[in-house]
Amino acid sequence: MTTFKAPPPPFDPELGAALAAMADFLPSAVTPDMIPAMRDLSAGPRATDDELRRDGRFEIEERAVPGLDGDPDMSLLILRPTAPTGTLGCLYHIHGGGMIFGDNRSGVREILLDWAEEFDLVVVSVEYRLAPETPHPGPVNDCYAGLRWTAEHAGELGFDPDRLIVAGGSAGGGLAAAVALMARDRGGPGLLGQMLLYPMLDDRNNTPSALQMAGLGMWDHTANQTGWGALLGDAAGGPDVSPYAAPARAEDLSGLPPTFIEVGSAETFRDEDIAYASRIWQAGGQAELHVWPGAFHGFDVTVPTAQISQDAKRARVAWLNRLLNA
Fold it and tell me: Do residues 48 and 111 lie in contact, with contact meaning Cβ atoms separated by under 8 Å?
């Protein structure tokens, strides 16, 4: 691995203290032999149906829908407000987990339902197949098939198809960017916006931040290599990677919906995410970029009470408000 000689940026004091306390059970580096343990760790206590119903304010359903072009059926977790106050939109959610772990309830209880209550949103969260058991294009095809089904059934689900937003964090952010590219290239569905939270975009894993943060924080260079290797095998980092696997490979970023991108200054994905926002602007698109100083990967989930995590959450809500209530 090429080394990077500049010192890493310092962690935010609150985040750095929490990171030090978690170092023994949340390692920076993840190697392929650790995938089973990471899946056990990420499974944790799953959100129960009762928790997702929020005292009856949401209806919950798990729906099996067809995969893409003969792929196996997949499951969509669908949550609908029971007493909306206005026209419903839809947040189509793709969970994170480095392409190798996680499920469609990840993050729904903590964040998405807050947004759903504030903005009258149906939440649809896709259970896509994971690598390495399912390499590319399986995961992104599942995500795109679920998105297409969701748009085609907007009437049944009760939302306005012109208010459909795709969102995801980490690997889910990368997959959200990929399905936005697929939707642009394949004639739909139309998207009102894409929310990409510290997205995993570039399989080449060789930006200054990827090298600078090796061995530090969460999801470092080695972990990123593990994730991309699981998805792409020996093709990772090579010349023939599809933009639907790694959106940073796309040559054309024009024609995308309004985009929200956030990332920490002290994480692997910093430079590829900044570059993605810049390239959207260079292509004439609209993007809002937040770089949180001293934040590591997944800081808001790991340390939700930190001041900088609260600031990040407010920025997301402000963007959604401008997008949905303009």
Answer: no
What is the domain count for the chain? 1
CA atoms within 13 A on the CB side of 286: 9
- Residue 45 counted as domain residue: no
What's 302's domain CATH number? 3.40.50.1820
Q: How confident is the model at residue 50 (pLDDT cuts 50, 70, 90)?
A: very high
SS3 48: coil
Cα gap 231→202, rounded to integer Å: 12
pLDDT single digits (tens) 183-200: 999 999 999 999 999 999
Q: What is the pLDDT of residues 242-262, one digit of tens each?
A: 999 999 999 999 999 999 999
Measured from the Cβ of residue 255, the count of other Cβ atoms closer than 10 Å reads 13
Query: Are the CB atoms for 125 and 115 separated by under 8 Å?
Result: no
The Cα–Cα gap between 54 and 61 comes to 14
Rounded CA separation 303/118 (Å): 23
pLDDT at 2: 59
Residue reference for tokens 């009437």: 155
Please count the CA atoms within 13 angstroms of the CA of 43 that sit on its side-chain side: 6
Whole-model pTM?
0.97
Distance CA 315, CA 136 (A): 32
| Residue 227 resides in a domain | yes
Q: In what order do the strands lie in the sheet with 121-127?
A: 58-65, 74-81, 121-127, 89-94, 164-169, 193-197, 259-264, 287-292
Q: Residue 1 pLDDT > 60, yes or no?
A: no
Give φ, ψ of 219 to 5 degrees. 55, 75
Q: What residue numbers bound the domain in which 266 lies?
A: 13-27+55-325
Q: Are 316 and 263 in contact (CB under 8 A)?
A: no
In this structure, is residue 236 part of a structural domain?
A: yes
Judge whether 132 lies within some domain: yes
